[in-house]
Amino acid sequence: MSTPMRQRNNGNMYGRRNNDIEGGPNRRGGGGLSSGEANAGILESQNNEYIDELSDQVARLKGLTIDIGNEVKEQNSLLDGMGDGFSNVGDMLSNSLGRIGTMLESTGTKHMLYMVTFCVVVICTLWWLMSSSK
Q1: CB 26 within 8 A of CB 20
Q2: Given 5, 39, 55, 59, which is the most exposed site by the fewest CB atoms within 10 A?
C-alpha cells in the first residue's frame, strides 16, 4: 500500500499560506497595518530613538574621559615640576645650613651671639607685623 503524499506548508509552521497571514493580500477588511504591526513599528521607532540617545551619551562620555585624561596628564607634569622645585630648595637649604654650621665652628661664640640676636629680632619683627595687621 502506498501512503498518500502530504502537502508542504511553504515554511509556515501553522500550515497557512503566506497570503493568509494577517496583513497579507487575502486579509479581509482592506489594506493597512494590523495593530500588531503598528505596535511593532512604534516600538522600533522608540528603540531607534533610544539608540540615538545612548550613542549621544556615549559620545559625550568619551569626550569627557578624554578631557579628564588630558587634565590628569597636565596635573602630573605640574606636580613633577613642583617636586623637582622642592627638591632643589631642599638641597639649597641643606647646603646653606652646612655653610652656616661651618662658619659657626670656625669663628667662635661672638658670631653665634650675633646670629641668634639677628634671628630673634627678625622673628619679633614678623610677629609684631602680623599682630598689628589684624
Answers
A1: yes
A2: 5
